[in-house]
Amino acid sequence: MTAWWQATAAFWPVGIPLAGAAFAAMLRGSVQGQRRTTGITLALLGLASLLLVWRVVADGPFATGFGGWVPPLGLVFVADRLSAALVLVTALVGIAAGLFARADLRRRQERGGFHPLFLAMLGAVNGAFLTGDLFNLYVWFELMLVTAIGLLVLDRRPTQIDGAIRYALVNVFGTIVLLAGIALLYGLAGTLTLADLARVVPALPASPALAIAFAFIVAGFGIKAGVFPLYAWLPASYHTAPPAVAAAFAGLLTKVGVYAALRLLTAVFPGALGLGDALAIVAGLTMVAGVLGAASAWDMRRVLAFHIVSQIGYMLAGIAIGTREALAATLFYVVHHIVVKANLFLAAGVVNRACGSYDLRLCGGLMRERPWFAALFAVPALSLVGVPPLSGFWAKLLIVDAAFRADHVALATVALLTSLLTLYSMSKIWSEAFWKMPRTGRPRPRPFDGRLLLPIGLLGAVTLTIGLFAEPLVQFARAAGADLADPARYVALVLSRGEARP
Amino acid sequence: MNLLYALATAILCGIGLYLMLSRHLVRMALGVSLLSAAINLVILQAGRLGAVLPPLVAEGAATVAAGTANPVPQALVLTAIVIGLALVALFAALVLAAWIKLGTLDTRAMRAAEPTAAAEPGPAPDAVKP
Predict the structure, then answer these.
(1) N or C: which end of chain A has fewer CB within 10 A?
(2) In chain A, where are the structural domains located?
(3) B25/chain A closest Cα distance in angstroms
(4) At what angle do helices B25-46 and A158-189 cross, to 10 degrees?
(5) Structure confidence by residue, pLDDT tens digits, A394-453
(6) Hey, what domains does chain B have and what are their CATH numbers?
(7) How far does the CA of residue B101 sit from the closest CA of chain A (Å)?
(8) Are A332 and A258 in contact (CB under 8 A)?
(9) Taking the CA atoms of chain B, what radius of gyration do you get in angstroms?
């Protein structure tokens, strides 16, 4: 018999941050109390995520039904290897962004509602990763959207209002399209539990309604993930947020779209993996469009935001190839990318503190004056490019290897060329901000709070650890990829072993 | 009945999309609210129209009687209406903030987050002082 804390392991990564958010909202008058709430919540979230991963590794994937309903009747949370890994990385990024926010945010920003919104966003992200119900997934997407808009306008500056409107319009449209797709799919299949859909939908006869439902759902996830040609909102808005917020966005939000596409395309629409060629073209275009945008931008955060788009292309490439190895590579890539991208946005915040601007042209001299920070920046930057022995090398190796094995030679070539262009824009940041002498009147960078480097070091250590000890994570990703490639396992997991009540 | 309902939904969707394509933020907000209302109608239709019996289990019976309405889409619509209301209210607040902070509701004039190419030139010449 499992103990209560094992049985409810899938609930805590969602319940803890939501409870923390409610508590922080009640402590509206006291910034100090809100800070304590965030700190305690993040610590508990870290423990809960570790517990979840431990249970999934020890006992294998499991499903938890709520309210005494047996799946597929009630709501169900499913913790398989993919979900558990992403929940753990979410907690890690949450902790790093929380530490950075503690040192970086001004009191006014914290009074603007940072704490409750940030915690609720983490809860929503975890909810989307864990839920086994399509409509519930939509609800978590909406919660993410609402909290993200609130976090974007933390300062109420004109740029933020403008960015938030661009963000809100496209993403609201995305969720509306997604909801329409879900409604049509429900009309056809009569169920919303993912495992039940995975059983029913592949057996449905091909019909225009099914095709439209599929197209709407994929378009909705595509907008959320920032896939070509639906990515323009991303570099238009992410750079307006404070660095801690931008780091959490950059790491987590688009990846929820990738996760949802990965889950739906493998389980519910396995036939759509035959669309691999169309998806592969979209993936290639996403890589190239993102990296070219990055090459032309001079605001450091905009360079990084364009790189998110480019990297989404790699993850999509893994889904497009669709073999077991490619799905494993996608999971590895997502984990690597979340850590590295969040870290780079935090580093951008420190560059702004040191130079007084995000504009790379106005910056300089950091290598000589702040060598420690330069070393800490080099880890995620080189990892993003894919230099061994950092995590990005293994991630790209796995994707390119899977592409060659599946005869997607063109896709592999585009991926490798994109890496080269990534190197170009990372070296642009490096030579402008770190190497060149500052062009401004100020010969030395401004001093900044040393606590800002703590989360950057934490995430950098994780990147380094993944890179140097890649084998366990690769094994884990392979097991997850095998689960994804065989939807019957997912169906059996939820529909037969579902624990009716925790 | 179904056709008429679908036609009405389609017209609502069309108006909503047309308004969303406008450059005026208030029209966009109205478009969002119309479109989300139209999708709520789609959900309701996905559960099949026609049955009017309330989905109640009679005393002593194990399941609902045949020919009762499907309760699931109604629960979904209820959730979607609440979410839609929150989104439209939030978007309206953003539009108001844009009017106060940016002084315009025309999206062509809103370049705060993404400066035009003229405002973002290539590498600065060495002589430039901030």
Answers:
(1) N
(2) 4-497
(3) 9
(4) 20
(5) 999 999 999 999 888 889 999 999 999 999 888 888 888 888 877 666 667 777 887 888
(6) 2-51+70-112 (1.10.287.3510)
(7) 6
(8) no
(9) 24
